[in-house]
Structures are given as C-alpha cells and as structure tokens.
Design goal:
Layout (H helix, E strand, L loop, with lengths): L9 H6 L11 E6 L7 H15 L3 E6 L4 H10 L4 E4 L1 H9 L11 E10 L1 E6 L14 E4 L6 H9 L8 E4 L5 H4 L5 E5 L3 H9 L5 E4 L10 E7 H6 L1 H20 L1 H11 L5 H16 L12 H13 L9 H4 L3 H7 L3
Parallel strand pairs: 1-2, 1-3, 6-7, 6-8
Antiparallel strand pairs: 3-10, 4-10, 5-8, 5-9
C-alpha cells in the first residue's frame, strides 16, 4: 500500500509561498527525512521544494534516509543540518546509548513537528488479549527508534523485548492484514485509518495504547545540532515560521490543503486525506491553543525521561533543558 503526502502537511505548501524574505548570501540547508514510502520524506521534500522556490538565496534539499536514527547520525556528521526524529531516538543520541553507543550527539530540539501518538493493534480472535499473550509470538515494529514505547509497555508488566518475536515492519499494512504478525505499530492518522478501512465489516480491531501503561511519549520533532542552532539561527527561524504557518493554514483551510496534496500526488484519495487531516488536527489542537502549535512542554520531556529510565532504556540523569531550545520556536512564533 503506497503512502504519500498526508493532507495535514499540505498547509505548509500553501503558507511557504507567503512568508519571509531571503538574505543576500546563498545558504544551503539539508533536511534528513526518511524512506520514500514513509511520511517523513514527503514532508521534508515539500518543505525543501517550497523554501527553495520562495527564497532565491536559500537552497533546501530533503535527503532520503532510514529515518530517525540515520537522521541523527547525519546531523552529527554534518551531512544534514535539520533532522526529523522520534523523541526517544533523539534522547538516545544525546546520551550516546543504544544505537548511538559511544557517540553522543550534541543536539537541540527546535519544535514538535506534530504530536505523533503511537499505538499497537491486533485483530480480535488472534488470541492477544493482554501483553502477556504476546510471548513468543510475531510482533511488527518499525525499529527506527520508535519502539521505545512498546519496550516500556512490556517493562511495565515485567516483560522484555526478547520475550516476543520481533518482525521489522515496513510502511505497508498488508503484512499485518495477511497475518504475518499478530501485533503492529500504527499511527492514529495513517496506518490505523488504513487498517480500520480494510477490516470494516469483517473483523474487530483491538487497540492498545501506551497511555494505558503510563508509557506514552510525545513525538515527532525537528532537531539540529547545537552548532547549527547557533550558526544558522536566522535560517532556522524562517524554516520554523513556515512550518507553524503551514499547520495553522492546513487546519483553517482544509479543502484547499487537500487540493494541494492531491495535485502533488494524484494516486491519493480525497476522503482518505480528509480523515488524515482531521486526525492530525485533533492531535495538534488537543490542549494547545492554535497560536502555540509546535510548542515544547517541559513536562513532556520529564515524562519521556521517566518512562525511559523506568524501563531501563536510559541509565543517566538528563534535564529537559539539556536537549531542547525553545528560543528559536519563540522567535518563529513572534514572541519577544
């Protein structure tokens, strides 16, 4: 099942046409995204394309990568300046643990790209009623750093990842529907909608939320190295300002936003994009005034640190202020 632009990101395309002015000096910005079949790449590609067209003296490019972990390694090596990342992967990189063992990445979080709430799902009748029922059974995970919540869920009931048979899942829901694994990671704005549509009238979906196990981590986010945050502050402010305007425009002008998405990818269906836009809008506005989209709350970082420490995925003390800088977000928003 092919995935393209989700309509929630269409506003970025429209808003980018109307913001800012370029500086006289040619500047280049590389954006680490994800695979061509995922969500990160089309978002980054849309931003890079429109920013390059809008600012004659700024050249932005979206890089095809393996996702969060690769993106964080790229900004550390200087091959990218901006990276899309899950929150837990970013914290691992900052601490130099797990996939970043021995190599700490001095990163700074610029803003929350959108509140990506991960769930895991199973189909009723597969014998999965509790997490304990997963022992020895195949479980589909993306393994791009976003498995941290599932690991925390297992830890909350005394289990480890080695207690299940992990199957690396791609961006298609078909293997799950075919029964290749009994549990699958999903986002509420994409895979969950696809699965619900595919089984409607046939099967009943069981949704397991990390929130039920006090293990929910807010993602996704845009991160850069500390050096980039200092050296290219003006460009980053303009980049974030485009994103913030884009989200607000997408929410306020949903039909126009969807038109832009469909023009970019004619394989997509309007009704599916409308559902996706509605789902993301609800996530973004839940408890957040429209003017504060993208804000980073200290409490969210404290909660993430608690979850990772309790589940054994983080072994040292970290302060939220060590890993994010909301100064650029405030400038982009227009705060003093």
């Amino acid at each position: 099942m092919k995935r393209g632009f989700t309509s929630a990101f269409a506003g970025i395309l429209a808003a980018a046409l109307a913001f800012g002015t370029a500086t006289a000096q040619q500047r280049a910005i590389a954006i680490g995204t994800g695979g061509t079949g995922g969500v990160y790449y089309p978002i980054g590609g849309a931003l890079a394309n429109l920013i390059s067209k809008t600012f004659p003296n700024m050249q932005a490019t979206a890089q095809v990568t393996g996702g969060s972990v690769d993106n964080l390694k790229l900004i550390n090596s200087g091959q990218s300046e901006l990276a899309f990342s899950m929150a837990d992967a970013a914290l691992d990189a900052f601490n130099g643990v797990d996939k970043f063992k021995g190599t700490k990445v001095p990163l700074r979080t610029l803003m929350v790209l959108y509140p990506n709430i991960m769930h895991v799902v199973s189909i009723e009748g597969t014998g999965v009623n509790t997490l304990a029922d997963l022992k020895g059974r195949p479980v589909g995970l993306w393994l791009g750093g976003d498995e941290a919540e599932f690991i925390a869920m297992l830890a909350s009931v005394g289990m480890k990842l080695s207690d299940v048979r992990v199957v690396p899942q791609g961006f298609s829901v078909i293997p799950f529907l075919n029964g290749d694994y009994v549990l699958s990671e999903v986002t509420v704005y994409n895979e969950l909608l696809e699965i619900e549509g595919a089984i409607r009238g046939k099967d009943t979906l069981q949704i397991i939320s990390p929130g039920q196990f006090n293990s929910a981590i807010v993602s996704d986010m845009i991160v850069v190295t500390e050096q980039t945050a200092q050296r290219k502050r003006d460009e980053l402010v303009r980049f974030l300002r485009a994103s913030l305007k884009g989200w607000r425009y997408s929410i306020d002008h949903s039909d126009e936003a969807i038109d832009l998405v469909l023009a970019a990818n004619r394989e997509l269906k309007r009704d599916e994009q409308k559902k996706q836009l509605q789902a993301v809008s609800e996530l973004m506005l839940k408890g957040t005034p429209p003017g504060d989209i993208g804000t980073m709350r200290v409490g969210d970082y404290e909660n993430m640190i608690r979850i990772l420490k309790q589940s054994g995925q983080l072994t040292r003390d970290v302060k939220p202020a060590d890993v994010f800088d909301d100064g650029i977000w405030k400038l982009a928003k227009g705060s003093p």
